[in-house]
Amino acid sequence: MGFVDKAEVDRWLRAYVGAWKSYDRDQIGELFSADVRYRYHPHDDPVVGRAELVRSWLGEAAYAGASARDEQGTYDAAYRAVAVDGDVAVATGSSTYLSGPGGPVEKVYDNCFVMRFDSAGRCREFTEWYVERPRSLCPVMSGGRRSGGVPRGLGDVLAPGRSGPPEGPVAELVDMPAGVLLEPVVVAALGAAIAQARPSARQVRDVVLEVRPG
Fold this sequence. Notes:
The chain has helices at 6-22, 25-31, 50-57, 183-197, and strands at 32-39, 47-48, 75-85, 88-98, 105-117, 123-132, 141-142, 145-146, 201-204, 208-211. With 214 residues, the protein is α+β, with helices and mostly antiparallel strands. It folds into 2 domains: 6-136, Roll (Nuclear Transport Factor 2, Chain: A), CATH 3.10.450; 141-211, no CATH class. β9 (201-204) and β10 form a beta hairpin.
């Protein structure tokens, strides 16, 4: 039995996304214990053992619930720990899929992971839940960027007038993981300010604020 903290789990989650993007055998294997039990869905029988799990990720073996290997450049994800208790952690985040490399967003899934770690910080139990986000709430992207020039489908918030904060993802402005859409928060919090600022600011697709010199 191992004990982990939130920072360790967040590092592991970043490595998890990196291994998914690279499909590197060693990177994938380093994440998991030799006796890992991995479920793609909570109702699946687990994939048992590091070697078998790596084969599953690489598409070398078929398992119930496992998806096909994803095409490079067509997906991205960000997750973070929301609860840690001893060797158990829960994480949430989102996974974004493009229609093709550099293409528009096709699907976004909101994810929840329940994980158990060993004393070396490797995951020995992993179960995933996910739900597809309604298309009306998905970012509209082209070439991996939103129409406002914001990377990874996040909206920037700029103050009305001639200047504002430098361009950067919303995740740097609020305590939320990159890749999580914040439309309800942005619209509710800034609706009145947008109305007062017109015509120097306007709302684009309910998320992006465009600022013009007054």
